[in-house]
Amino acid sequence: MKNQIDGETLTCALIAHPAAHSLSPLLHNTLASRMGINLAYTALDVWPEDLEAAIRGADAMGFLGLNISVPYKEAVIPFLSGMEDEAKRLRSVNTLYRSKDAEGFIGANTDITGLKDAFDTTRVTIKGKKVIVIGAGGAARSVVALLAMEEAECIYLLNRDKDRAGRLAAGLKAELGYDKVTVLGLDEYQQIPKLTGEKFLCCQCTSIGMYPDTEHSPIEDPAFFAQIEAALDVIYRPVETKFLRMAREAGAHTDNGLKMLLYQGVHAFERWCRLEVPEEVISDTYAELSRALTHKTSVVLIGFMGSGKTTISKLLADRLGEQRLDSDAEIESRVNTTVKDIFAVRGEGAFRAIETRILRELAGEEREPFVLSTGGGVPMKEENRSILHEIGTVIWLKTSPEEIYRRVKDDDTRPLLETGDKYQTIVDMGNARSEDYETAADVIVTTDGKTPEEITEEILMILTSREAA
Ligand code: NAP
Questions:
Q1: Among the atoms of ligand 1, which is closest to the Cα of residue 164?
Q2: DSSP per-residue letters across 163-174
């Protein structure tokens, strides 16, 4: 349903300073639209001296609810008629909603539950983990509170201003009785004991690396990242910060702050509208937010048969809201013959000529950006490689021969594997093609040991950081 603003429209807003670049309006207007609720949400930049007037004014004007962000999560407390227990305990409010029994607004903290939901969507568990948290501001406060509630074994809390980190640790002890925090300066990370046989979970909660400061990470020492098993950066613009890139390159599972934003918003929306948002609406909204953050040129996936091009292209197209194309399917529909028949009747040479012609057509057509998965032999021709670059960003899904063999050994639909020793054919073809794949690729993404969803997430991050660069 398209939002139609009229006399019945319910009104919600974010109050922050600054507020202009917030994704919250897109988040809540998408939720309202998908849920078929006549609700409009906007972002209001309120100066500190006007905070009380803004809250009272929103109440007087019948706003259904508000979100509160930096720097007002504590400052708003005196203007509330009630508070949920968790918000009271943490002295941090990000959501105001109306109660049936009281005048004014009730304050809630959905940052922590949102963060918990975000963690729950990953394979990362917190209980019993040794965790490094970088930063001691508002975002770090939510993160350490969740870590304490979920029984992290211990927390190393690093911050440029060590006293601020000390105050955060003291607050955690007073509010939640959690006392397993070691406070360190940002440059004292080498004092964290080295682990053997296990690794740290690491949460990056500073604003370092946030757009446009994309070339910095609070720690840039590769030895630090070698100790990290999973990394969360609360930043989502860019989608992959330098911190996340270094963690990913060191082999860590990585996540940005977009799901944290999403779920705190969902919990706020549920309080305003007194309903539960279904999973499919949450994932549509996430896709909408991802689209707003990612780029708008076509993507070309190259790789050996069995490298996951078809599956990944479907997931990626879905997430980008773009059409998915497949070079073999385009050939079949445009020449009205199956690839198998072209190979059988006219031979590989004729097939390759048709393939190049169809790619050239695709490159020349005026159309919205799309995600193209290509046949394994496409990058072998120099002419094709330059056409692929005309089409868009070329990503090589790089998979080991062992993994490919495991995936395709029982598949009889691959013309090139119909004769001889399948494993040896895969090894030989891999050796013959690797150099051309590498030359063709703008980006190489390894796929062994990763799920299609993880690979898709990695590609989305890469696309956004290329866009921001
Ligand atoms: P904040 O309260 O102002 O805290 C900023 C943190 O960054 C502090 O730890 C600060 O260290 C550190 N920092 C800033 N510049 C630094 C520098 N040049 N060198 C070293 N440390 C530096 O901000 P916040 O509310 O915690 O927000 C932090 C980030 O989280 C922002 O990028 C924000 O967009 C993001 N965030 C995301 C979500 C989400 O839903 N995903 C929610 C909230 C915030 P000092 O204490 O030493 O100054």
A1: 46
A2: HHHHHHHHHHHH
Of 301 and 212, the structure prediction assigns the larger pLDDT to 301
Per-residue tokens: 371: 């995600």
Question: Minimal CA–CA distance to 465: which of 237, 176, 225, 144?
Answer: 237
pLDDT tens-place string over residues 12-24? 999 999 898 889 9
CA atoms of 451 and 460, how far apart (whole Å): 14
Q: Is the CB of 316 under 6 A from ligand 1?
A: no
Q: Which residue bears the tokens 């940052």?
A: 111
Residue 257 CB less than 6 A away from ligand 1: yes
In angstroms, rounded to a whole number, what is the distance separating the alpha carbons of residues 432 and 415? Answer: 17
Q: What is the mean pLDDT of residues 160-169?
A: 98
**Which residue among 73, 130, 259, 309 is the active-site one?**
73
Q: Is the peptide bond before 78 cis (omega within 30 degrees of 0)?
A: no
In what order do the strands lie in the sheet containing 443-446? 323-326, 370-373, 298-302, 392-398, 443-446
**Orientation of helix 111-120 relative to helix 258-273, angle to 10°:** 120
Confirm whether 73 is a catalytic residue. Answer: yes
pLDDT digits (tens, 9 = 90+) for 328-351: 999 999 999 999 899 899 999 999
Domains recognised in the chain with CATH numbers: 10-109+275-288 (3.40.50.10860), 113-256 (3.40.50.720), 295-463 (3.40.50.300)
Helix, strand, coil abundance in the chain, percent, nearest 5? 50, 15, 35
Is 238's pLDDT higher than 80? no
Residue 16 Cβ inside 6 Å of ligand 1? The answer reads no
pTM: 0.71
User: Half-sphere exposure of 332 toward its Cβ, with a 13 Å CA cutoff?
Assistant: 11
Which amino acid residue places its CA nearest to atom 34 of ligand 1? Answer: 235
Q: Is the CB of 160 under 6 A from ligand 1?
A: yes
- Residue 97: the pLDDT is 98
**Cα–Cα dist 379/370, whole Å:** 19
Q: Which atom belonging to ligand 1 lies closest to the Cα atom of 135?
A: 9
Tens digit of each residue's pLDDT (9 = 90 or more) over 66-96: 999 999 999 999 999 999 999 998 889 999 9
Atom index in ligand 1 nearest the CA of residue 236 equals 41
- CB 322, CB 369: distance < 8 Å: yes
What is the CA(125)–ligand 1 centre distance, in A?
24
Q: Taking 90 as the threshold, does the pLDDT of residue 186 lie above it?
A: yes
